[in-house]
Specification:
The chain has 19 helices and 22 strands. With 571 residues, the protein is of the alpha/beta class. Strand 17 and strand 18 form a beta hairpin. Belongs to the IAA-amido conjugating enzyme family.
């Protein structure tokens, strides 16, 4: 539980900063700015500048290349986490060490305590859609893999999680299998074998949960056949996976018939999760930010089961725990844990005339960063983190709102990523604005019983003036041209940023273009990401694709079937 009343929050934060700086006192990066082993927050803030990844990339690259001196930390970094890199097409490395592992364990234990109080679980199992990624080594011999893989390959993590996490239905061979599609099939199969024991369903991101149950729609009859005969499908060819899964697969015609009948009786797969896993109490994973567009479909699969958003963190480190698990994902808040990192918050003010604008659309006025004890309820900030793994005053790029306090520690509500997504001249639109525009247009599809499976965007400057391009993959090819034309107009009008509206009116930004993609296109995008060494459980569809991300652009452009230009501002 979170109890920090006995130790004042300010002192807790100073103690955490002191530990970080003492452990890393000889780090080259800190000495570059003449910190000279001082550990007080005033000296730290006056000497060490705020930074973003590009400003420390050269240090991390030296570590990747084999420099085992004290570059960023006192102890050598032995592994790196690889972020998705789906927007720019280039993954980025971030340091990972034992201290980050311990903070992960603390975060998970804290949220579990609150979760289990509301939804107690017994000694059953968890249906976990978790996938390891390729474990590559850099030129300097440093292990580089996803943060998820760094955790699940750790003996320490597995031991610590035994107390608080139900055992995964699938053996390790499935989690670390070399082929995602085979691993997903076996996750579903193992989950069905242990269907009565499953207490909850989990994947790191909502996207991979939706993908898993969409796959179930396609392979359920094969899964039933495997269970009926007790023989694993020939689609699973990896020897280690076949051997591990075959040990738990036995002929069970009664279970196979039960699953078959339940699937046949479902209406458009609504409520498939509680139907097949009757003792599951909730569905768990990160569901905020770029995962919000998947909630509608996930709720369809979940039926009456609650969706619960997992904790707030990133490859850079953890920030807070979900201590209010009964809140829906759209309202979830996170209590900051003051001893896992040193936190600062950049106050973001709204310029005059933009007070009523959407939070994601504003070019904020920044003030000097404040500490964890100085934030104010209702105010908006950007999160800055100093962690034990060599990130100092690192700007996460996340905009959060202070929703309140749990005991004395702030509760944050995630608003959006700060980075601009779509901009041609004076217009400013972010991922959240794009999501809202798509949701507005999607209302027009509802009458035809269609939905947007996934989407992304592009700024096209190939002709003057430049214009926004929105790519859609739809659930069916049955949409009429009239409806899709209306959708293009709807999205064009839904971008309400003053710079965009003004530029559209005077035609310094061209008409928004909706490009409809073949079914399965975003599956190809994901497969491309997996080919770079990523893990599907960490995959996030890029909401904006840059021109430098040529491979993803090629996939999108070769799969365009229809294109519609908005006429919302005239032709």
């Amino acid at each position: 539980m979170l109890i920090f009343a006995e130790v004042p929050l300010q002192r807790e934060q100073q103690d955490t900063l002191t530990k970080i700086l003492e452990l890393n006192a000889d780090a080259e990066y800190l000495n570059r700015f003449s910190l000279e082993r001082r550990t007080d927050s005033k000296s730290f803030k006056s000497c060490i500048p705020l930074c973003v990844h590009s400003e420390i990339e050269s240090y991390i690259q030296r570590i990747a290349d084999g420099d085992n001196s004290q570059v960023l930390t006192g102890k050598p970094i032995t592994s790196l986490s690889v972020s998705s890199g789906t927007t720019q097409g280039k993954p980025k490395f971030l340091p990972f060490n034992d201290e980050l592992l311990e903070s992960t364990i603390q975060i998970f234990r804290t949220s579990y305590a609150f979760r289990n109080r509301e939804y107690p679980i017994g000694n059953g199992k968890a249906l976990q859609f978790v996938y390891g990624s390729k474990q590559a080594f850099t030129q300097g011999g440093i292990l580089a893999t996803t943060a998820t893989t760094n955790l699940y390959r750790s003996w320490r993590f597995k031991e610590a999680m035994k107390d608080i996490m139900s055992q995964c239905c699938s053996p390790d061979e499935v989690i670390f299998g070399p082929d995602f599609h085979q691993s997903l099939y076996c996750h579903l199969l193992c989950g069905l074998i242990y269907s009565d024991e499953v207490q909850f369903v989990f994947s790191p991101f909502a996207h991979s949960l939706v993908h898993a149950f969409h796959t179930l729609e396609e392979v359920w009859e094969d899964l039933c056949a495997d269970i009926r005969a007790g023989v694993l499908s020939k689609r699973v060819t990896t020897p280690s996976i076949r051997q591990a899964v075959s040990k738990i697969l036995r002929p069970n015609p009664e279970l196979a018939s039960s699953i078959y009948n339940k699937c046949q009786n479902l209406s458009n797969w609504y409520g498939v999760i509680p139907a097949l896993w009757p003792n599951a109490k909730y569905i768990y994973g990160i569901m905020t930010g770029s995962m919000e567009p998947y909630l509608k479909k996930l709720r369809h699969y979940a039926g009456h089961l609650p969706l619960m958003s997992a904790d707030y963190g990133a490859s850079e480190g953890w920030v807070g725990s979900n201590v209010n698990p009964t809140l829906p994902p759209e309202e979830v808040t996170y209590a900051v844990l003051p001893n896992i990192a040193y936190f600062e918050f950049i106050p973001l003010g709204k310029p005059k005339g933009e007070e009523m604008e959407n939070s994601s659309s504003i070019h904020y006025i920044e003030s000097e960063p404040v500490g964890l004890t100085e934030v104010e309820v209702g105010k908006i900030y950007e999160v800055v983190i100093t962690n034990f793994a060599g990130l100092y005053r690192y700007r996460l790029g996340d905009i959060v709102k202070i929703a309140g306090f749990h005991n004395s520690t702030p509760e944050l509500q995630f608003i959006c990523r700060r980075s601009l997504v779509l901009s041609i001249n004076i217009d400013k639109n972010t991922e959240k604005d794009l999501q809202l525009a798509v949701e507005e247009a999607e209302k027009l599809l509802a009458e035809e019983k269609l939905e947007v499976v996934d989407f992304t965007s592009l700024v096209d400057r190939s002709r003057d003036p430049g214009h926004y391009v929105i790519f859609w993959e739809l659930s069916s090819d049955n949409a009429s041209e009239e409806v899709l034309s209306s959708c293009a107009n709807s999205m064009d009008l839904a971008f309400v940023d003053a710079g965009y509206v003004g530029s559209r009116k005077i035609k310094t930004i061209g008409a928004l273009e909706l490009r409809v993609l073949r079914k399965g296109t975003f599956g190809q995008v994901m497969n491309h990401y997996l080919s770079l060494g990523g893990a599907v459980s960490q995959f996030k569809t890029p909401r904006f694709v840059t021109q430098s991300n040529s491979k993803v652009l090629q996939i999108l452009n070769r799969n365009v079937t229809q294109s519609y230009l908005s006429t919302a501002y005239g032709i």
